[in-house]
Amino acid sequence: MEYKVMISEFEGPLDLLLHLIKEASIEIFDIEIEKITEQYMDYIHQMETMNLNIASEYLTMAAELIEMKSNSLLPKKVVESEDEYEEDPRENLIQRLLEYQRYKEVVPKLHELEEQRQEYYSKTPESLREYTDIDADSVDLDIDLNDLLEAFKKMLERKELEKPLQTKVTKKEYSVSARSNEIRRLLKEKKKIEFEELFELVTKEYVIVTFLSILDLARKQELNITQDRNFNNIILELKGSETHG
C-alpha cells in the first residue's frame, strides 16, 4: 500500500486509525482488528524507513493493536459467570474512535464560532465602584436623576446598542477623565448641547464612559442639566456660561 500522507498531518493515533478506516471504506463498527492492525503497522514501518521520528503515542497504539490482534487469534475463553466478565478491547477501541470522530465533527463548528466571536467588540473590564455610590442629592440637577437615566435608556434603545457589531474594529480605550475634558471643550465652544449629541459613536464602551462623564461633571458642580418640560430634550451647559435674557 502506498502512503501519501505523513504522521505529522494527523493529530494522534486515533486520527490515523480514522483515516485508515475511511481509506478502507468501512464503518467503524465493522473494523477487523487483524486488518486494521496490519494497515496501521504498515504505515508505521513506512515512516520508519523514511527515518521519520514517530511519537510515542503512535507506538503505544501499535502495541495495543498487536495485543488485540494476538488475543483475537487465541481460542475464546468461556465466561462461566457475570463476575468473570472481561471488557472487549475491540469494543473499547470502537467507542474511542466514535468519541474522537464526534470531536472531529464538532471542531469546524467551534472554529466558525471562534471566527464569529472575533467580529465582536469587547471592552476590558474596569472598576465602576466610584460611580455606583453617587448620592443623587450631591448631584446638582434641575431635573430628576431618574429623568436622566430614563433619557439614557431610551437613547440606547434608539441606537440599538444591544445588537453586536458586524465588523472588526480597532480597540480604543476611553476614560472618564479624557471624555470629561472633551465634553468641557465642546460645551465651551457651543455653550449648550443636547444630551444625545454627546453620543455620536455607537459603541457600548463609548456611551457608557460618556454617561459616566456627564454624571461626574454634574457631581463636581460643573454642569447645569435642564429640561423645559417633560419629554423635551435635555440640555447641558457649563456652569457660569448661562445666557441671561
Architecture overview:
With 245 residues, the protein is mainly alpha-helical. It has 8 helices and 3 strands. The chain has helices at 13-23, 33-49, 56-73, 89-117, 129-132, 145-159, 176-190, 204-219, and strands spanning 192-194, 223-226, 235-238. A 3-stranded antiparallel sheet has the order 1-3-2, with helices on one face. α1 crosses α4 (89-117) and α7 (176-190) crosses α8 (204-219). The longest helix has 29 residues, at 89-117. Mean pLDDT is 76; it is low at 136-140 and 165-170.
Major sheet characteristics: 3 strands, antiparallel
Which geometry do the CA atoms define?
rod-shaped
Q: What oligomeric state do the depicted chains represent?
A: single chain
Report the order of strands and helices: HHHHHHHEHEE
Major sheet strand order: 1-3-2
Q: Output the number of helix runs.
A: 8
Radius of gyration, CA atoms, in whole angstroms: 35 Å
Overall mean pLDDT stands at: 76
- Helix-strand category: mainly alpha
Binned, the helix content reads 40-55%
Overall strand count: 3
Uncertain regions spanning at least 5 consecutive residues: 136-140, 165-170
Measured distance between first and last alpha carbons: 97 Å
Q: How big a fraction of the residues is strand? A: under 5%
Produce the secondary structure layout.
Blueprint lengths: L12 H11 L9 H17 L6 H18 L15 H29 L11 H4 L12 H15 L16 H15 L1 E3 L9 H16 L3 E4 L8 E4 L7
Précis, in short:
By secondary structure, this protein is mostly helical. The chain is built from eight helices and three strands, in the order αααααααβαββ.
